[in-house]
Amino acid sequence: MAKPKWCLLTVLALLATAVCLPESSFAQEAKENPRAWQEQAVQYARILSRVKWTPVAGGMPNRLGGSFKEGTEYTGVPYSSVKSAGRCIGFDIYLKTFLAAVENPRSVLYTENLSGKVSNAATYYGKVCSSFTSYTLQCALPYRSSHHGPEFRKGVVLVDPQSAQSAEPGDVIYTPPAKAGGGSHVEIVTEVERSGNRVTAVRVEDSWPPTMRDLLRKASDFDSHISSRGRRLYRITDFDAWREHNKAESFLFPNYQEDSATPAINRVLLLDRGDWVPYFKDQAVKFHVMDRDSQGVQALVVKRGDTAVAEIALRGRGVIERLFSDCGDYTAQCVMSDGSRSQACEFSVCDLDFRLPAETPTRDKPWEIRFTAGNLNVITVQIMSSKPPYGRYNVWLTEQDRRSRKVTVPAGLIQDPGLVHVWLIGENRYGRLTRQEEVVFVD
């Protein structure tokens, strides 16, 4: 029997009290309770690993091949390495944005397929192992799976001995590539069961196709797991040093308070990207008038702030497409047959672009990036190497950088010559948008 299609976020009751603390409050709590970040990591993992959702249509691509089945309930967000082509759940969009898109049979979840376009991807909204652990560990941006350990981060050590008896919630398990050029993997420990002083079982959670895995292993099975394939059990000993400037509480996303709350999904109207979501100026907004309860609709009204920018007569259900040239925060709602107004959908229209230097940049000299942004706060320039060890470097913007609309990449930041991907990332209260360019560095 098909599960109910009304999608509700189901997490532990304790998650309802989870909040995105201001940095000063977070620091104070960490001082009073050094294990606070570990307790929060467990809570935050379960926001994404235990959410339940049910496709309302066929065609949502599955990383294992084929599609998620209409009317079948799934647990955990879908696995998809969206990169800059799609959007990462928790970092680029709210969890509730994904859940709203699930309820719209005309959304990007059903009409877009990243398979074959982006490596290790399928759904337009998704998550992978490294973005899952980075989300649980309260990072502002994901670390690569291979960058969780002491080779790349401070404040993290190899657990000794490498066994269940030493495991603690918040520990991460890193699996190196099975072969040169292959993919690595990372998991997080979320529970340790004991009988007296002996550990009897260890729960490990990770993002794994098609959605998430939540495995409670007996101590002996856990030992077998980490002793195979060159796996390493790491422990973060200095949380601030490990994250450095990459702290969730310093930015708008991830937003754990919103992600842990039960959303009210609109039953009359949804956007092609769900709800509570940013668009680029050059992206059409597709309004799907669903009227799922058959109340009858008269018109679609779109506002930018308090100003009406469109009022479109309706003859029933269907999709209406519009482009908006003015940046700002918008709402859209239907006028029903009885004159009442439906729940409003919320979205923003934004501008984001940047220009690389005309001359080929060199590693030993600083170089400048000029950018434009509308209705977005640019937070970082992220530079990623295209070859092992896949170096990833962030230049975090200052207020002066934002005012001058330019940022300087310091000399020596890039370790190796060759092709790199440059991402400019901006955020507002509805999510994040990214622009990408490629550039070749020379000695």
SSE inventory with pairings:
Elements: H1 23-32, H2 36-49, E1 52-53, E2 74-75, E3 87-88, H3 95-102, H4 108-111, E4 125-126, H5 129-136, E5 156-158, E6 172-175, E7 185-195, E8 198-208, E9 211-218, H6 219-227, E10 232-236, H7 239-243, H8 256-260, E11 269-271, E12 277-280, E13 285-289, E14 297-304, E15 307-313, E16 318-322, E17 328-336, E18 345-355, E19 367-374, E20 377-385, E21 392-396, H9 399-404, E22 406-409, E23 418-428, E24 431-441
Parallel strand pairs: 3-4, 12-18
Antiparallel strand pairs: 1-2, 5-10, 6-7, 6-10, 7-8, 8-9, 11-13, 13-16, 14-15, 14-17, 17-18, 18-19, 19-22, 20-21, 20-23, 23-24
Helix pairs in contact: 2-5
Helix content: 10-25%
Question: How many structural domains are formed by the residues?
Answer: 3
What oligomeric state do the depicted chains represent?
A: single chain
Residues in β-strands, percent: 25-35%
Taken from the alpha-carbon principal axes, the silhouette is: globular
* Total beta strand runs: 24
Whole-number mean pLDDT: 91
Rounded radius of gyration (Å):
23 Å
Structural category:
alpha+beta
Distance between the termini: 63 Å
Q: Which blocks of ≥5 consecutive residues have pLDDT under 50?
A: 1-24
Main beta sheet: 7 strands, mixed
Tally of individual helices: 9
